[in-house]
Fold this protein.
Amino acid sequence: MDEPQQGVPRDQWPACGQGAPRERRGSVMAGELVGFVGLGRMGSAMAGRLLDAGYQLCVYDTQPAATADLVARGARLAASPLEVASTAETVLLSLPTPDIVKAVTVGEGGICRGNAVRTVIDLSTSGPGASQIVSKGLTERDIALIDAPVSGGIAGAKGGTLALMISGPREAYETTAQPILKHFGKLFYTGEKAGLAQTAKLVNNLLAAAALVISSEGMAMGVKAGLDPKILLDIINVSSGRNSATQDKFPRSVLPGTFDFGFATGLSYKDVRLCLDEAEAMGIPMIMGAVVRQILALTQAKYGPDSDFTSIARLSEEWAGVEIRG
Ligand code: NAD
């Protein structure tokens, strides 16, 4: 039987294991309805790509302004995550923190109570610990969790060139998630274990933040010594010191002094904290990582959690008494 108790709300269904498992309907095709919760910088860009591909959307965000453009393009606006989950079989999330992901999915009145939802795809960076809790809560209601944290920033989200790290039940990935996620970029399936993809994402973001910290120190020192920052970057970017900060963040957001790369200091700090917490729980020292975490704490204390994380360079500028501008 497809529905364990036809006409009975999901919150009154028997606990996991008491009802026969429902069959998955198979691939979600363009034209079908997909739910999307969290339409911020990343979510709105990815949702826009799904509209471009012909999907119908049911959207929810706590900030009404976040969904306005999508609604103008035909997306249906829901009043809560629960309404999204009672409308669409597949619900995508792009939310800021693990606590919000847990509340929206398995919290009181969360997505797990929806009558329609069968698969939740979490595009947020929410860490392996939250993934394991959410996966357990959803599985008990016969809903699959696919972790699919992304890398590539707003430009990648808009252009469909993100890297997506994916874990969760293979069947739900192949039949449901893959046809949707292919519109966002390159897919890397890491395995069935809940949270595996989140670990890959945390390691990547630790490295990205570390590159920004050390590049800021080097660039400030070079400029103080009299080097033109544009020439110094040109040298580094064809030499062995090149990295994602020198190749992308400095030219785009530090040299013009705009500090608008599109990734909040508070989110980067969250990612590095999550990574170090996981490492600590595994008994693995992360000495360099601890320094990066402190630099992010300083940046957040000085410029606020909503500042762009390229503001890390402003700390080095201040300590060196220079501006890295070109
Ligand atoms: P954002 O703050 O721009 O967007 C988050 C959205 O979630 C906001 O619109 C907010 O109103 C909404 N929201 C918050 N609580 C909610 C709730 N309870 N219910 C519904 N909506 C809620 O953040 P972002 O930069 O788009 O990042 C989203 C996720 O993607 C984060 O986990 C982040 O770490 C990750 N990420 C961001 C980038 C980037 O470059 N910005 C890159 C890769 C991964």
